[in-house]
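call fold(seq) -> tokens
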Amino acid sequence: MMQSVITLDKNIRSGQPCVRGTRITVGDVLSYLAAGMSIQEIANDFSELSHEAIMAAVAHNTAQ
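ret:
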């Protein structure tokens, strides 16, 4: 179910995996986390990202 939050579209961000309905890539989310942002901070800064979407990005990366 979480994986359906992540989409691939060759016309959006050169086909990188993105959070559905946004141009925010899985890589973007992971880089925010790596920089020390908490899930709550990311969700606060990017209102289009829910907790579920952030966790889906992490899960997508782990599945790769």
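Helices lie at 26-34, 39-45, 51-63.
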